[in-house]
Amino acid sequence: MIVTCRRCGSRFSLKEELLVRDVTKVRCSECGHIFLIKRQRESIPPSQYDEGIDLKVYEKRVPERKGFALRYVWIGLLALMVFAILGSLYIYFLRPELIPERFSFLSPQKDKRYQDMGVWKLRFLELNGKFYRSENGRDRFVITGKVKNGYSEGRSEVLLCGILLDENGKTIMKKRVYAGNLLSEEEINNLPIEEIDRRLNENSHYIIEPAQSISFMVVFEDPPKNISEFAVEGISSVPIK
After folding, report:
1. Which of 12, 97, 15 minimizes the C-alpha distance to 58?
2. 126: number of CA atoms within 13 Å, CB side?
3. pLDDT tens-digit profile of 152-199?
4. Which listed residue, 9, 136, 198, 211, has the most CB atoms within 10 A of its CB?
5. CA geometry: angle 44, 50, 51, nearest 5 deg
6. What does the chain look like in DSSP terms, one character per residue?
7. What topology does CATH give the domain 122-240?
8. For the chain, how far is it from start to end, CA to CA, in angstroms?
């Protein structure tokens, strides 16, 4: 006769002649579950009996778990949706510059006082400061670096501002220049500061393609002795359609 374990679903082949009583206690060799069987092959509720038989596996069946796999699919989809929502909120509120230009209508509405003048996606790289002594014996401090275009279109007329700060972070000098205008060391040492300012402030319409960068330079004459640090910030740029 074939006996089925109600707990794990394993099936066993059992010789009926082993059933010396009308009701016999048997133990599943797979999961250890103990249950009762009758000679008529009908399982009955558990009871206390001294006799018992260990069953040998005839056929093992794993009980069906309806909806088990589907439940984990829904959990995975829910986790994915939560991750997508949190990522969208992070970009919307903290990194709106990452929103592509073609989806700019999705960007948060900003106060017109803080309207992008073409500088939010500009990045400054390789900043460096160096002192020079001009031909007339005057000290000059030069800031050099590169500005990288993070916009999806080219940018031109990139106007920057170099800033000198004291130990308290207070601005003590600043100058505007256009990116792309550069001078040689000889020109920095020998040219009058008026000519240097004219050249660096000349709008030469250099174009910075997307993901590309261009060098810039800011020259200060007779900088204060209490310079603690320097910085560069963007003022404006014009898109190239």
Report:
1. 12
2. 10
3. 999 999 999 999 999 998 999 999 999 999 999 999 999 999 999 999
4. 9
5. 75
6. -EEE-TTT--EEE--GGG--SSEEEEEETTT--EEEEETTS-EE-----S-EEEEPEEE--PPP-TTHHHHHHHHHHHHHHHHHHHHHHHHHHH-GGGS-GGGGGGSPP--GGG---S-TTEEEEEEEEEEEE-TTS-EEEEEEEEEEE-SSSEEEEEEEEEEEE-TTS-EEEEEEEETT----HHHHHHS-HHHHHHHHTS----EE-TT-EEEEEEEEES--TT--EEEEEEEEEEEE-
7. Immunoglobulin-like (2.60.40)
8. 85
Q: How many Å separate Cα 70 from the centre of its chain?
A: 30
- CA torsion 54-56-57-63 (nearest 10°) is 0
Q: How far apart are CA 14 and CA 31, in angstroms?
A: 17
For the chain, give every domain's residue range. 2-59, 122-240
The Cα 218–Cα 140 span in angstroms is 10
Cα distance between residue 158 and residue 181, in whole Å: 11
Report CA-CA distances (Å) from 215 to 24, 156, 160, 218: 93, 13, 11, 11
Q: What tokens does 36 get?
A: 């009762």
Q: Work out the average pLDDT over 226-231.
A: 91
Which has the higher per-residue pLDDT, 55 or 231? 231
Task: Lay out the sheet containing 2-4: strands in order across.
Answer: 2-4, 11-13, 57-59
Phi, psi of 51 (to 5 degrees): -75, 150
* CA 231 – CA 145 distance, rounded (Å): 11
210 in Cβ contact with 123 (< 8 Å): no
Tokens 């050249």 belong to which residue? 199
